[in-house]
Write a structure and sequence with these properties.
alpha/beta, FAD/NAD(P)-binding domain, Elongation Factor Tu (Ef-tu), domain 3, globular
């Protein structure tokens, strides 16, 4: 048995791993060494190009439960994240380089995985294939996938936050604290008075942006909306959003606004600015950040950038196993399938690979239902009643169970039901 996996991002890396550990020979194609997109910075697999956070670790939060479901299914992505975790309060954040290099070494050294550092330009529908090319898919491969999808492509834009050197932060004007003291003060907080915030806001809304030539209209995923776009909705959007001071009191006082920074690498020399994803010009980014007292002389090592995310019209193209309806040898996983987020992308690769493994055996593909987070995402993106698919993070709004629950015990019931179903599913597919 042999499967072609196109793309070694989070979804493709997870898919290749799940297949290989089940004895399937994998041909893994990744083009970064020969044709790297500008959004990427290294040649390693599963690169975290936006935030380095995999979000909440609370199992009673939907994405926290999703991570635990993946752990129950021996996820490589979760193994790498847990081994390269850095302090981030109640969230799971990773050392970017350690996370990606760990996954790269695991995949390149696996005897069932052959890595091809080359660009794939066509999809052979007669060969078992998992397309995990990612939302930055472009060129000939994009055109080939579009043909298989009857040109059913959609898109949105998101942005990346700047990363700065810790030594350039004026710590006499900043303090360590996690919101509501959850964790051990893992974030650096840069407070602003009302006067300082007003000056910052005035500079921000007047700052120039990088022109994105192909952007005929601004379509943003809410979770990755540029903070200058949020700002133009009004000051309150920032004060109740990324610069919210609630839970960040210091010496008994609450600042008017707060800019938070999260550790970005294990040795604590780099920090990213939480919620400050942007497509301001590089010069404007320096000027705007200089209006925050603690960041007046901040040294930016990676500027924020904007990029387009492409995804297919999955409700018309895929079933609830990430398998193409018209081309059953082909599975499409990751953000290009319409899920949104690092963990969600990896989870789709995991589930798509397990489905592919069953398909290769000629067996009926066992289905995860909406009473798991992994299954609920697959059902959401493949629901034919959805007129226009909108990418969505894992959430309990699409979770369904017949198990009775009250408002008070809802989350505990969801956790118990989901993990029991995941364990039952694993036994059914692996014995």
């Amino acid at each position: 048995m042999e499967v072609i996996v196109i793309g070694a991002g989070l979804a493709g890396s997870e898919a290749a791993w799940q297949l290989a550990k089940r004895g399937v020979k994998v041909k893994l194609y990744e083009k970064k060494r020969v044709a790297r997109h500008s959004a990427f910075k290294t040649d390693d697999f599963a690169e975290l190009i936006c935030s380095n956070s995999l979000r909440s670790n609370n199992i009673e939060n939907a994405v926290g439960l999703l991570k635990e479901e993946m752990r129950h299914l021996d996820s490589l992505i979760m193994e790498a994240a847990d081994k390269n975790a850095i302090d981030a309060g109640s969230s799971l954040a990773c050392d970017r380089e350690g996370f990606s290099s760990y996954i790269t070494e695991k995949l390149r050294s696996h005897p069932n995985i052959e890595v091809f550092d080359e660009e794939v330009k066509k999809i052979d529908i007669d060969k078992p294939t998992i397309v995990a090319a990612g939302p930055l898919c472009e060129g000939s491969l994009s055109e080939a996938l579009a043909e298989l999808c009857d040109k059913r492509y959609l898109y949105f834009y998101d942005a990346i936050s700047p990363i700065i050197e810790k030594d350039s932060i004026d710590m006499s004007k900043a303090y360590y604290k996690s919101r509501y003291d959850k964790g051990e003060g893992d974030y650096i907080n840069c407070p602003l008075t009302k006067e300082e915030f007003d000056e910052f806001y005035k500079t921000l809304i007047a700052a120039p942006c990088i022109e994105v030539k192909e952007m005929d209209k601004e379509i943003y995923f809410e979770g990755c909306m540029p903070f200058e776009v949020m700002a133009k909705r009004g000051k309150e959007t920032l004060l109740f959003g990324p610069m919210k001071p609630v839970g960040l009191e210091y010496e008994g006082k609450r600042p008017y606004a707060v800019c938070q920074l999260r550790q970005d690498n294990a040795i604590k020399t780099l920090y990213n600015i939480v919620g400050f994803q942007t497509h301001l010009t590089f010069g404007a980014q320096k000027e705007v950040l200089s209006k925050i007292p603690a960041l007046k002389n901040a040294h930016i090592v990676r500027y924020g950038v904007m990029h387009r995310n492409t995804y297919i019209d999955a409700p018309r193209v895929l079933d609830a196993h990430y398998q193409m309806i018209r081309h059953p040898n082909v599975f499409v996983v990751g953000q290009i399938a319409g899920v949104e987020g690092y963990v969600e992308s990896a989870a789709s690769g995991l589930y798509g690979a397990l489905s592919m493994a069953q398909y290769l055996k000629g067996a009926e593909i066992k289905e995860l239902g909406q009473d798991t987070i992994i299954g609920s995402m697959a059902h959401y993106i493949s629901n034919p009643t959805i007129a226009k698919l909108t990418p969505m993070n894992a959430n309990f709004g699409i979770f369904r169970t017949d198990e009775p629950y009250t408002k008070k015990d809802k989350r505990q019931v969801f956790v118990r039901v989901a993990l029991a179903n995941i364990d039952t599913y694993r036994k059914a597919i692996d014995g």
